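User: Need the bound-state model for iron/sulfur cluster:
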Amino acid sequence: MNLTLKIWRQKDAKSPGKMVTYPISNIEGHMSFLEMMDILNDELIEKGEEPVAFDHDCREGICGMCSMYINGEAHGPDRKVTTCQLHMRMFKDGETIHIEPFRANSFPVLKDLMVDRSAFDRIQQAGGYISVNTSGNTQDANSLPIPKADADLAMDAATCIGCGACVATCKNSSAMLFVSAKVSQYALLPQGQVEANDRVLNMVNQMDIEGFGNCTNTGACEVECPKGISLDNIARMNRELMKAKV
Amino acid sequence: MSKSKFTTIGRKILMALSGFFLMFFLLQHLTINMLSVISPDTFNEVSQFMGTNPVVQFALQPVLIFAVFFHFIMGIVLELQNRRARTVKYAYNKPSANSNWMSRNMIYSGLVVLAFLGLHFYDFWVHEITEKYIDGDMTGLIDPNNPNSGYRYYDELSEKFIDPIRVIIYIISFVLLALHLLHGFQSSFQSVGVSKGKNFIKKFGNAFAIVVPAGFIFIAIFHFLQH
Ligand code: HEM
Ligand code: SF4
Ligand code: FES
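Assistant: Bound-state model below.
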């Protein structure tokens, strides 16, 4: 396949950026999107140009580091995959591919396609944990019966990898899907009850401090989320918040 | 502990509650207006009741006015905040891949409805208030000095729909209201945390969003054709 890439280039957080066009050839359908980016970068390095900086780590869809807004969609046109799992066979020979960083004022661009998503870490630190005693007298896991349905829903919520595609996709740059997944994974389990009220209040408060927008229930996040996190989690978080407030 | 009194979610829930109230009001308004098609006399009786009943006038009406103002002011505030959350736009974006037009354009459908409300207030409400509370005529009669002249409400409604331009403005506004509600109905349930039965809510909401505005459009056309 021969493709035309239009990529956002930005020297550093302070400089203005712009879209730059790069032709690329001999791309195979079985390659991942990031392998294609590696090939481009090899070519750029050989030509003595600055390679395109982008985030990645595990390259198997579990770490949440890879990002990129590809042809107008977070993690590209495929469903329930991260950019590292996106195959080039999703594109046609001769196609132009637009590649931009995840955009939200709460996710400032550091360089090219790399964005600072530490706002998510601060939300997580504000309440996304439970206090357990791990000093050798840990309770037997089976001593607390948990309904299968609840365990499954908690597990579904816990599959959120914190990639930020929901924020990047949302027209309001809302972080509700992420925060609701992190609230839900504990709200559904008995271990999460002790700190339930403080958790939702503190995490939502931190979310607001970070400057994410307001959810208007467009549902775009749920469609683009690589882990299929459901909007039901947002409804649950809203219930948790009401419970904590009254 | 939470530092802000109203979180983004808190504002969102209030938005939904005002939306619920407005939708309930629409249904009640439609029911009464339908009487103007079925029986002008009943329509006049009910209008006189609604126009003079102290509970309606001094409890429900202020709540309604508050809800309208709250809803559109909060809607505009939220929209401005949301725009500030992403000041550098995507060079290439494809929102249609993941969401529908109605959900993305609530502010525009809302602003059209707001413009309509301006016209509607001018058409009916300003006139009513002047007649009742400034001129002090609480009789609701065509000729306040003649008890046999009959109530004025049906005639006032009917004559609004002589001008085809006004009828067209009404129709366009109600189409935009339908678009507003196609997203808004189900969205308000999600906002207040109801996600059980969401397929039913969505279907019922779609029906509500189409039937209620279509009812108002029917009434406008009905009276236009009567002239
Ligand atoms: C009879 C008139 C109206 C009705 C029945 C109505 C109903 C609704 C409903 C049910 C929602 C969904 C609330 C939610 O998602 O929680 C909504 C949202 C919205 N409305 Fe209205 N509305 C009306 C008029 C207006 C007007 C005049 C504006 C003026 C700007 C407006 C602006 C908005 C906006 C911007 C939203 C989206 C905000 C959000 O989802 O957070 N609406 N409306
Ligand atoms: S909810 Fe989905 S899109 Fe959002 S951070 Fe988690 S995995 Fe990524
Ligand atoms: S690189 Fe880890 S999820 Fe893509």
